[in-house]
Amino acid sequence: MSTKLGEWHAAREHAQRALNSQAQAEKHTEIRGLLAGVYHATGDSLRALRELETVLKSYLNEQDLYGQVKTLGNMGDLLTKIGNYTKAAECLTDAYRILVNGESKYKRLTKIQSHLLLNMGNLYQDMRDLEKALQYFSEALASAREHLNQNVESIALLNIASVEYELGRLEAAHDHYSEALDLSRELHNRYGELSALDGLARVLMAWDRMDDALHALWAAEQIAIETGDIEGRLDVLLHLGETHLRRQTAPEAIATLEQALQLADEIGRPKSACDALRSLYRLYADRGELETAFQRLETLYERERALLNAEVDERVESMTARFEVERAQHQAELNRLRMVAAEEARATAEAEVRDRTLSLELAQIEVVTRLAVAAEYRDDTTGDHTRRVGQLSAAIGERLGMPAEEVELLRIAARLHDVGKIGIPDSILLKEGPLSPEEYCQMQRHTVIGARILAGGQSHLLQMAEAIAQHHHEHWNGGGYPCGLSGEEIPLVARIVAVADVYDALTHRRSYKAAWTKEAALAELEAQAGRQFDPAVVREALAVLKGGSTAGGWGQPRRGRADVPRLGLSAPPHQPSSR
Predict the structure, then answer these.
(1) Least confident window among 201-210, 303-312, 357-366
(2) Most exposed among 119, 370, 455, 529, judged by the fewest C-beta atoms under 10 Å?
(3) For residue 453, what are the domain limits?
(4) Whole-angstrom Cα distance, residue 447 to residue 24?
(5) Are residues 323 and 436 in the same domain?
(6) 373 and 455 belong to one structural domain
């Protein structure tokens, strides 16, 4: 009961006493599962994972399929949150296989189907495939309502609202957050109530209703304090600081953000600490406290560089190597299974092939997504530019009549268009202002580098990504690079991404240029049709952008710096080009 109410400290004390009690020895596995949830909610993710691994061993020994699926799902969700997408995908794939193979014999397994769907949605949301995440969350909501599981229903509503907010669908996000808030209060679920209030506050801030947002955040903070939800309180404090900042109440903003910084350091949330530092140094500078502002800025620089080194410089080479190893291992395993299918047990082996194929697909998507974010993270810290380019490219491809499967692959592959920037020196990639002719020539090498990173892929996804990375700077009239291709010699997917990339570069601010208006950017696309761009692609892009049906997918920035690569306008304004 304490966990359902969000009273985490009380729940931990009860669970630890129960583990020490011989009277409840037969329930130790279940108690450890609850304890893992408490550790995670109070910020101790590694300890939570260790508890879940112990729980899984017990369920395997007992041949308890229900316990195995539930625990693997929880492990997948926890691994997703700490950024280990490969292991998360493995756990969720194993859980799905057990559920599918066992649900005909054990009807109890269908009761946790919605939980597993939620975890799959969380994985895709963290990998920034928001449309796929929304699909899984919607399926989880339908499953929860079918089985009358209101607790899962409230979580699904919160997750749907979160994705809709990120996609810029504010009205829908507001409605789902409100529905989740009412249901959480009905269920006395304090965690759900906190999350719903925090989400509503973000929507209200987007609507510039700062007073209403402030009251929602105060209520959420009180719940976080009462329940001991440390991670929830950190998110609320960051949003409170942002609200005070926008209300121009500097003392309250500084006090709140300093508190958030301290809490982020205590529980090991470096990105949240950078968010707080970024706002603090500006606040102190505006107040004339230049020494304190400089200290905060210096700390921010050190931490962002540390994050960059940890996330990119130290991992790019190992990620690429790991990807090649995994791809080879999966291919060898698939070949073995196909031989078994032909010679010994076709039906059983083919089922295993499907499982392995699903696992390979998840691994490929995970590595592709992380490579895309790694490429951008050297000069930015989120992933919104690549996501927006992927969304717009998919919308254009759909209008051009591409098959649905190709459109979904394009949505992912387009995100890798600038992966070759991993190999461009910081002195060029991070330079403010126009590049010299020599620097621009070196910058052009990112297309060749990107193609080499992706070369040799056996899957259609990687082959498409290679073509995009190499040719998205070719021009319809033959004046582009690196190969000087023209017209339909340029792969269609590269022609599509070229338009989406330039439009997004024009309409978003960089440190060395202001954002163009949507009208000016659309006029530029029209002017370049038949010169830089394929006229047919421009025609369909204008239909998408002027229609506005999908604009929310690439038009809404997240908190923090805008996530766009160093796409400069080194040519005059009438000649768009990206570095």
Answers:
(1) 357-366
(2) 455
(3) 380-579
(4) 62
(5) no
(6) no
